[in-house]
Structure formats: C-alpha cells, structure tokens
Amino acid sequence: METEREETERRQRGDEKETIRGQKETERRQKGDTEETNRRQKGDRERGDREETERKQRGDKKETKRRQRERRQRQRGDRRRQEETGDIAAAAAAAPPPPPPPPPAADAPAPPPVAAATAAAATAALPAAEAPAPAATAAAATAAATAAATAATAAATAATAATAAATAAAAAAAAAAAYATPMEKGDRQPKGDRQQQRRQQQQRRQQQHGGQKGKGDRRQIEETEKETEKGDKSQGNKTIDNVQQVERRQIEETDKGDRKGNRKGDRRLERRQKRRQETEKETGDRKGDRKGDRKETNHK
Fold first, then answer.
1. Is residue 187 situated within a structural domain?
2. How confident is the model over 183-196, as pLDDT tens digits?
3. Residue 47: how many CA atoms within 13 Å on its side-chain side?
4. Residue 27 included in any domain
5. Which terminus of the chain, N or C, has less C-beta within 10 A?
6. Segment Disordered: which positions (predicted)?
7. Rounded Cα gap, residues 239 and 86, in angstroms
8. Which domain holds residue 84?
9. Residue 140 predicted with pLDDT over 60
10. Closest by Cα among 226, 234, 236 to 33
C-alpha cells in the first residue's frame, strides 16, 4: 500500500512538474511573440517617420527649385523685353525722318522751275490766234502748282507709311528671332507650348516605364503597400493568436485529463484500500472464530 501511495504521489509530482514546465514554455513563447511584435511595430513606426521626413525634405527642395526657376524665368523675360524695346527704339532712330508737311494753299509758293518752264513752253507753242489771255495763264499755273503740292503730300504720306512698315517689320523680325532662339533651361514658354511639352513628356514616360508614374499613381502605390503591410501584419497576429489558442487548449485538455485520471486513480485506490481492510477484518474474524472454536474443542 505504501508503494502504491508513493507511486501515486510521484506521478502527481511529475504531472505537476510537466504542467509547470508547459506553462513556463508557453509564457516564454508568448513573451517572445510579444517582444517580436513590439519590435516589428517599432521598426515600422520608425521607418514610416523616416520616410515621411524624407518625403517632406524632397518636397521642400522641389518647392525651392521651382521658386528659383520661376524667378530666373521672370528675369529672363524682363531682359528679353528690354532688349526688344531697345531694338525697336534703335530701328525707329535709324529710320529717315519724314518730310515736313506742305504749307497751306493760301500761302502756296511759286511753281517749281520745271512746272514753270513746262507752262511757258506750252504757251509759246500755241499760235498767236490761240494764245490764252494773261488771266488764263495765271489760273493754269496755280492749278499746276496745286497738283504738284498734292503729289508731294502723297509722296510724304507714302514715305511715312513705308517707315512705319519697316519699323513693324523690324520689330516682328526681332520677336521672331528671339522666339526662334534655342530656349535655355527654365525659360518661360507660351501656355500652349508648355501643355504640348507636358503631353510629350508624359507620353515618353509612359513608353519608357510602361505606364504613367504621376503623383496620383505614387500615392496609390504607397496606399496599396500600406494596406498590404497592414494585412500581412494582421494575418501574422491572427496566426500567432491561433497557435497560442491551440497550445492553450491542449494544455487545458492535458490538465483536465490529468486531474480526471488522478481522481479516477484516487477512487480506485480508495476502493482497493477499503476492500483490503474489509478482507483483513473478515480474515481476522474468521481466524478468531476458528481460534475460538479450537479453544472450545480443547476445553471440552
């Protein structure tokens, strides 16, 4: 009986040690999983902060470069306008001055020598019978002088128009030359040209990289990566929780089975001990009866 009790106690102590060892192993594994999760989360936070700082710094650098580029464009545009203005002024100064306007008809000067000689020759060529009167000759001379003045005015107007056309042509040529000059980096372009150039750059980028890589796409890619990382992290935590639940359930079932087995063993031991006691008592009674019978027989 002592041997069975010792065996039972030893088995119980072994089961308790095994249970404690399993609990310690589970706690150590849970602690390691928690530390790993915290370390991974800390690394993710640090990496996110570092990426955010780098992105802000890149944005600040881009903004500074954009402002510098716009300032250089304004300065170049101002210099080009000043140069165009100076070219137009130089062309206007180099053009010959227009002739003075003709005097009024009341103060008309004497007819030019050519006109006077022509009138005199015509008068001399007429026969004596057809010679005009002196008054008719004076009227013809006045009309010829008026016609000559009108022709001179028309010539002056034509010269002025030619000068203006030459000035406009020079300005247009200067503007065309300035526009045709190869533009430097950062020069201001007309809006239509900028749009065309932007479309061409976008097409080249699509051909090179197989798709548009604009700010919207970068943001979409970052969001997709964050969601994927979040999903992986959630899936990893879910897997860890499942493993821990399975291990905890196994330990609980083992403990329950051990307790149930112990109770069953204890009841079996108690029944065995009780049966032994009863057997010993019966044996003693029978032995006592036999002894009493012998005494009675001997006494008789």
1. no
2. 555 556 566 677 78
3. 8
4. yes
5. C
6. 1-139, 173-300
7. 79
8. 17-92
9. yes
10. 236
